[in-house]
């Protein structure tokens, strides 16, 4: 059996909806953005949309799904409630061979849901109700799952003061104690600007691998261009992977920069999950001990495949 990878992240049900620019304007939504909403706004939107498709989402869950597609051995921990969307979530992951170990309980909050509006230009605009997913606590982490993993993948979206910070710290403590590598994605530029100092500290002290796109990396270093960011991050001697859309991707390791071209596609349908699936390809090859160039190439191939489909699932 291939090496086990454990992903820990927000368990969010993705609800896909086709919308035009007028719909976004009328509902005061900024195209291309991710907006956190409360239950009232979520219920209001739910009443005026026509759902195209529903599946288990959340950034790290998408990455684990991609690893399952590559016949890897992914496990996922995320928090759901025992409501309708929670049941859909669990079934959606188990159907594609992602081991989902969370024991569902009747929670005081609903299962997290993200309504993803896809406009005719393939851009996605997200309204996310985090619900119970953002309450993943240290008690929800079973140490035995951590010890069995070869690598643990976390998302920046989960980092917040209080409950989830404690959970993060428990995971890092157990991983380091058992000599397990820790990878993290920066998730999104607002996440980076909000938690910049914490993320820098995590990178220096705890992480072995960091994923980010060009904008997120520049926000992390407070630099205006990638060349300056690379120069600063090279001193840390970590494996840092930077995606650059159609400009390809690169990895920094031991002072060296390894570049990789993007895979050209004919028609982009939906950009949802491009970064998540890039991480799937990279991490699966990394666990199989492939060289870094091959890790980047497989990541690029999966990212190219996913943007030609609606949603973040290849399987």
Question: Can you offer a commentary on this structure?
Answer:
- The protein is of the alpha/beta class and 315 residues long.
- 38% of the residues lie in helices and 23% in strands.
- The protein starts with a strand and ends in a 9-residue tail after the last helix.
Short summary:
The chain is built from eleven helices and 14 strands.
The largest β sheet comes out as:
9 strands, mixed
- Cα Rg: 18 Å
- What spatial order of strands do you see in the largest sheet? 6-5-1-9-10-11-12-13-14
Q: What percentage of amino acids are in beta strands?
A: 15-25%
| Count of distinct strands | 14
- Quick check: average pLDDT? 92
CATH architecture: 3-Layer(aba) Sandwich
Total number of helices: 11
Proportion in helices: 25-40%
**CATH superfamily descriptor:** Ribokinase
Beginning-to-end CA distance, first to last residue: 19 Å
In sequence order, what are the helices and strands, one letter per element? EEHEHEHEHEEEHEHEHEHHEEEHH
Please describe the topology of this protein.
Layout (H helix, E strand, L loop, with lengths): L3 E5 L3 E7 L2 H6 L7 E3 L2 H10 L2 E7 L1 H11 L3 E5 L6 H11 L4 E2 L11 E7 L5 E6 L13 H5 L3 E5 L7 H15 L3 E5 L3 H17 L3 E5 H8 L4 H9 L4 E5 L5 E5 L2 E5 L13 H14 L4 H15 L9
Parallel strand pairs: 1-5, 1-9, 2-7, 3-8, 5-6, 9-10, 10-11, 11-12
Antiparallel strand pairs: 2-4, 7-8, 12-13, 13-14
Helix pairs in contact: 3-10, 7-8, 8-9, 10-11
